[in-house]
Amino acid sequence: MTGASSGIGATTAGLLAERGMRVVVNYLRNSKAAEEVVVGIEASGGQAMAVRADVREAAAVESMIEQVQVAWGGIDVLVHNALIPYAVKPFQDMTWEELGGKLNDEMRAAFAVTKAVLPAMIEQGWGRIIYLGTGLSRQPREGMIALGTSKAALEQFARYLAQELGPQGITVNIVAPGPVADTRIADEFDDTHKQRQVAATPLGRLAHPADVAQAVAVYAGEDNAFMTGTTAVVNGGMSMY
């Protein structure tokens, strides 16, 4: 699982481990946080390992996959959650480097991790690929054009893969959260902004990382064999489509 040292990633890693999966906790900088996730999983009887890799770099991703294969063999499930940095600002204040750079990095990372796991999945005729998207790809919000545009590209990428890989027993799906509390993105906005989001949500609160993790776990399950090319929207009814 990419980007698994904190927030949604750490919570999802723990849930998948509870459900019997061996979990790779990928991280970029915070080795201490990643090791804490591993220790927590192992203390609960699960299996996990922390592996550092910048998922925007194909060589680093390939090295990570090789480490996993040596230790555990093939990879059955890819959860791509790594948060690629982006600018929060209006389009009129944005440079092409900020918008185009986010688009390039988002797709480069998805391309690299998917390319790396596919050979093993194709060989065994089975696999689950889950990308973390965002409701912002369909429902714009002020200052979020870089994230929303790049994740919209990721969602369409996933649909094309679902069509191509379905005959080989591999499903590809998106989990698209709305605003999620207790994450780095949530800290970008003040309390007034968050209160407006809660007021616009029929279920009366923002999502928690555990809500998102539950949706990922559904897609990752071996028994969920006939859902592909779909998007699970986790936003408490803030938008409905």
UniProtKB/TrEMBL annotation:
Specify the domain of life of the species encoding this protein: Bacteria
Q: What is its EC number?
A: 1.1.1.-
Keywords, comma-separated and alphabetical = Oxidoreductase
Q: Name one GO molecular function term.
A: oxidoreductase activity
Query: Which InterPro entries does the record cross-reference, listed alphabetically?
Result: NAD(P)-bd_dom_sf, SDR, SDR_fam
Q: Any signal peptide, and if so, which residues? A: none
Q: Tell me its family.
A: Belongs to the short-chain dehydrogenases/reductases (SDR) family.
Q: What name is this protein filed under?
A: SDR family NAD(P)-dependent oxidoreductase
Q: Which organism is this protein's natural source?
A: Streptomyces milbemycinicus
